[in-house]
Specification:
The protein has about 290 residues and is mainly beta. The chain has one helix at about 20-40; strands at about 1-10, 10-15, 45-50, 55-60, 65-70, 75-85, 90-100, 110-115, 120, 130-140, 145-150, 160-165, 170, 180-190, 195-205, 210-220, 225, 235-245, 250-260, 265, 275, 280-290. The protein is built from one helix and 22 strands. A five-stranded mixed beta sheet has the order 2-1-22-19-18, with no helix packed on it. The chain has a four-stranded antiparallel beta sheet with strand order 6-7-8-9, with no helix packed on it. A four-stranded antiparallel beta sheet has the order 10-11-12-13, with no helix packed on it. The chain is globular and about 55 Å long.
Length: about 290
């Protein structure tokens, strides 16, 4: 299933359509184009690999990958999950860190910056005391960078996390949280200082998720929610988004899942009968703004 934007006056809507073989080919070519564009950015493409104890930043040079030293402020866990760059001397990596081996309590956002010589940790304002989890980053320029993710509040509600770099400091920016108990942003795309998109999912209950797609837009002043099509499954999420180079086309991807009634399952190993919920899932692709 693919979703394409349809203009209605000055408004941009997200709309479903069935993916044709031609569109599949075009999507593949655009993906390859995006990868090639990243490979030519400042002659390097950064690949981030995270493990349970430390970060590794891997950098290809002349076709040979090498490890570049990165900071690990957490004594127990350090993760990097996304990277963005404006030049060979200006790159950002985001993730989270913790000094506890178990649970998420005390997890803080981790922001690292590359100045062309080394990676260093940048101070940032963490929102939720229990946990802060940046998941995506996009850069408009050296003084205009966005991070999105989610943060857990003291009453265990998950809200969106949005932070902005103005060239001097990182600051928290208020996003929308339409879900009563769950609001997560997993991807962000920045077209300009007045046109930034973030995608994720929302839910009104942890016990019965019923997740729906969440799309938010920055107009240069504030973040607002934008209507997203739902393909009808009872758990639909958007997980990531990219901008096609040299265009205004955005691709967002996710999953639509339908859960059946729990059934009794006899495990192959020792133990009693357990219940499992059958899942039927399908891919979700959405597009906008071309």
């Amino acid at each position: 299933m693919v979703v394409i934007p349809m203009k209605n006056g000055d408004e941009i809507a997200w709309k479903d359509f069935r993916q044709s073989p031609q569109e599949k080919v075009r999507f593949l070519l655009r993906t390859i184009t995006a990868i090639l564009a990243m490979c030519t950015l400042g002659s390097t493409l950064l690949l981030l690999a995270a493990c349970s104890t430390q970060n590794n930043i891997v950098n290809p040079s002349s076709g040979i990958w090498k490890i570049v030293h990165s900071a690990n402020p957490g004594s127990a866990q350090n993760y990097l999950s996304a990277v963005a760059a404006t030049s060979a001397t200006d790159a950002w990596a985001v993730g989270s860190f913790s000094s506890k081996h178990l649970g998420f309590q005390g997890t803080k956002a981790l922001i690292e910056h590359w100045n062309g010589t080394s990676w260093s940790v940048m101070p940032n304002p963490n929102v939720g005391k229990p946990g802060n989890f940046p998941s995506a980053i996009a850069a408009v320029s050296t003084n205009d960078v966005w991070i999105v993710g989610n943060t857990i509040t003291d009453n265990s509600v998950t809200n969106t996390l949005i932070q902005h770099w103005d060239g001097k400091v990182w600051s928290n920016v208020k996003g929308q949280n339409p879900g009563k108990e769950l609001n997560v942003l997993g991807g962000v795309v920045a077209l300009s200082a007045h046109d930034v998109w973030a995608v994720g999912s929302l839910s009104n209950s942890f016990d019965n998720p019923q997740a729906q797609p969440l799309i938010e837009h920055w107009n240069g002043t504030a973040w607002s929610t934008v209507a997203s099509p739902n393909i009808g499954t009872n758990n639909t999420t958007l997980d990531d988004a990219i901008l096609v180079p040299h265009s205004t086309r955005i691709w967002a991807v996710g999953t639509g899942a339908t859960y059946g009634a729990p059934i009794n399952v006899t495990p192959t190993t020792a133990g009693g009968i357990t219940q499992e919920t059958p899942v039927t899932a399908q891919t979700l692709i959405e597009s906008c703004c071309s």
